[in-house]
């Protein structure tokens, strides 16, 4: 399960980065903001999983 969550975090981070870059390239502030939010969500998920790993041992 943890590996699945880590993969989701990486996917969210990557999708967010692509959206952010695309939004910046075409001058679409909404798309850029969506990308930032999605990337932050992936960062938070990854931090949560790292915390779980630290508690395990």
Helix count, DSSP H or I runs of 4 or more residues: 2
Low-pLDDT stretches are: none
Average residue pLDDT: 93
The main sheet comes to:
none
Percent of sequence in beta strands = under 5%
Distance between the termini: 17 Å
Helix amount, in percent?
over 70%
Order of helices and strands: HH
- Subunit arrangement of the protein: single chain
How many beta strands in the DSSP annotation? 0
Content-based structural category: mainly alpha
The dominant shape is elongated
Radius of gyration, rounded?
A: 13 Å
How does this model look, in words?
With 57 residues, the chain is mainly alpha-helical. 93% of the residues lie in helices and 0% in strands. The chain has helices spanning 2-26, 29-56. Helix 1 (2-26) packs antiparallel against helix 2. The longest helix is centred in the C-terminal third of the chain and has 28 residues, at 29-56. The two termini are 17 Å apart.
């Amino acid at each position: 399960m943890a590996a699945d969550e880590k993969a989701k975090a990486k996917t969210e981070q990557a999708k967010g980065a692509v959206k952010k870059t695309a939004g910046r390239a075409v001058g679409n502030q909404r798309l850029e903001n969506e990308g930032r939010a999605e990337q932050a969500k992936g960062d938070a998920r990854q931090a949560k999983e790292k915390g779980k790993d630290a508690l395990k041992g």
